[in-house]
Amino acid sequence: MRIGEMSRRTGVPVPTIKYYVREGLLPPGRLTSPNQATYDDAHERRLRLIRALLDVGGLKVAAIADVLAAVDDPGKSVHKVLGVATALIVPKYADEEADAELDAARHEVRELIARRGWLVDGDFPAAEALAAALAALERVGHGAFSQVLEAYADAAEQVARADLAYVAGRAGLDDLVESVVVGTVLGDTLFASLRRLAQADRSARVYESDESEGGMPGIEGD
Amino acid sequence: MRIGEMSRRTGVPVPTIKYYVREGLLPPGRLTSPNQATYDDAHERRLRLIRALLDVGGLKVAAIADVLAAVDDPGKSVHKVLGVATALIVPKYADEEADAELDAARHEVRELIARRGWLVDGDFPAAEALAAALAALERVGHGAFSQVLEAYADAAEQVARADLAYVAGRAGLDDLVESVVVGTVLGDTLFASLRRLAQADRSARVYESDESEGGMPGIEGD
Hints:
The structure is a homodimer of 222-residue chains. Chain A starts with a helix and ends in a 15-residue tail after the last helix. A two-stranded antiparallel ribbon of chain A has the order 1-2. In chain A, helix 3 (41-56) packs parallel to helix 9 and helix 8 packs antiparallel against helix 9. The relative contact order of chain A is 0.08. Chain A has 2 domains: 1-56, Multidrug-efflux Transporter Regulator, Chain: A, Domain 2 (Orthogonal Bundle); 57-210, no CATH class. The first copy, chain A, is built from 9 helices and 2 strands; from the N terminus they run H-H-E-E-H-H-H-H-H-H-H. Chain A is mainly alpha-helical and 222 residues long. The radius of gyration of chain A is 22 Å and the shape is elongated. At the A-B interface, helix 3, helix 5, helix 7, helix 8 and helix 9 of A face helix 3, helix 5, helix 7, helix 8 and helix 9 of B.
């Protein structure tokens, strides 16, 4: 198809498509004349993947380039490729100078990993992101929020089991890695949305009856 | 304390603190002379909250202003304030034109909410974010990923239960709302990090033994 048709089919403006090609996110079309290129279904699918990572996943263009390079890299073992893909799509955290809170949080993360028997290194990027989040909680006076950690870890194990079961159903390595990337990025949004809905439900059940009084809730029963 | 001391204690540069005051994120200090203001512990705590929302939560300054306005708004019932706070911190999704995928996804979300008996409206912002994520999965050819939805929803209910239990332990309305905001934003990062760690663990268990063969995994047993 021509670039104009791919633009109509995906809703991505032609100049934006050209920008993705220049940035190396999208392979160039096949030239059919010096000024004309043609694009196939693989281009369209890749374009939709880029948009999903941008719009819903909230990734930046540079991060998408790294992720797609991992997707396209042949000859890596499955676990290695999964490791690269998930390491690249780490939850956002600031690069922080080590301080007492971060040191304590890293220790807490190492203990959690050991306690759960998780087969991951303590310097896995997500472990650092987790430590940064715990340190940030401590700094804003909500260190006690870490009491939810075990409940969260139980839930994360269930979610990861569902994730891997989905991934395992994919046919080829390309498809498998793409499904990890898509599932990782969109799965975060999926879960965060479900968490909000479940929170709203819990909040309605716990607090709604106090609504008429307009005051502080009595929450002994929960 | 002087602004310089607050800067040293929090690691936030003085010009940045002044910027937050100009943007209305941080209340001005109390003037002790025409050119000198003094700040107290409440300022310091608010400043740390702003940095946590920015650095770890990844919120933009305008979103933080909205969230803090909700935190500071007195006389709202608890459930209403929680609703405002969680609605403002919705998972990122693009404003999309309605299309067949989005319509189908919205329908799927309404069915999910009904099936789980969740006390939330179908037009709750998180419901729209969930529909956007499902539509994006469909568009990139991974609509089948929605097979994880029930496992995710189970996990989300557990997490929300832990969240509300934490919130219920807070003393006053200010503190309660602040804990919702902090828990919502940092909780997303917390959970996403734990999900990566649990995925890495699952991946190691499922694929590591195939490592030596360098080929595609046989995953019948899972």
